[in-house]
Design a protein that fits this description.
Largest sheet: 12 strands, antiparallel
Structural class: mainly beta
Radius of gyration: 16 Å
Number of helices: 0
Number of strands: 12
Strand order of the largest sheet: 6-5-4-3-2-1-12-11-10-9-8-7
Shape: globular
């Protein structure tokens, strides 16, 4: 019995008002990230994200835009450093129609489709999660970023493995679908 592939739209096309909550662990420090879909324009779905430290202080805001470009689900994250400089990260998270073992280029590296997996986070367990991995950097300073997406829920897990062996983890806590406006 083969699982039917979910359309790429199932991973990012969410109604305005949809919200996500994540727990983030980075070098032992815990924070909460709250995201909200704020609308769609020209096929791009915009999310506003706010990160808050465990003590309640703001750790910053960012804007994510999800869209399909050149057949790949692409995310662009924009945030501002304390000095006011804009930081932009942009990469193709999932290639439409890709299967386990397929690869595609990304700025600074290459993505690989790792297959469909069962994933458990504090927010639930899913048997149909799709996992991809970005390998970036060079052989002396390799960085691996594992992303796990679930149809109709979106991004549920991020694991960033830095060259020193530390892991920055984002774990999905909750999703609430927005209502038709």
């Amino acid at each position: 019995l083969l699982l039917q592939e979910s359309p790429i739209e199932d991973f990012y096309k969410f109604k305005e008002g949809s919200t996500w909550t994540y727990k983030r662990l980075e070098t032992g420090a815990e924070s909460k990230i709250a995201g909200k879909a704020t609308g769609e324009k020209e096929g791009k779905v915009r999310h506003e994200w706010k990160e808050t430290a465990k003590d309640g202080t703001s750790k910053g805001d960012s804007v994510l835009t999800w869209s399909v470009e050149d057949g790949a689900l692409t995310v662009e994250a924009r945030s501002y450093a304390e000095n006011g400089n804009e930081m932009v990260l942009r990469f193709p998270v999932l290639k439409a129609g890709s299967k386990k073992g397929d690869t595609w280029p990304s700025p600074g590296g290459e993505f690989t489709h790792l297959g469909t997996v069962e994933v458990t986070t504090p927010g639930g367990t899913w048997k149909n999660a799709v996992r991809t991995q970005l390998k970036a950097g060079d052989e002396n300073t390799p960085v691996k970023i594992d992303l796990t997406l679930v149809p109709k829920v979106g991004l549920v897990k991020i694991e960033i493995h830095d060259p020193g062996g530390a892991v920055n983890l984002w774990d999905f806590m909750r999703f609430r679908a927005g209502m038709n406006v």
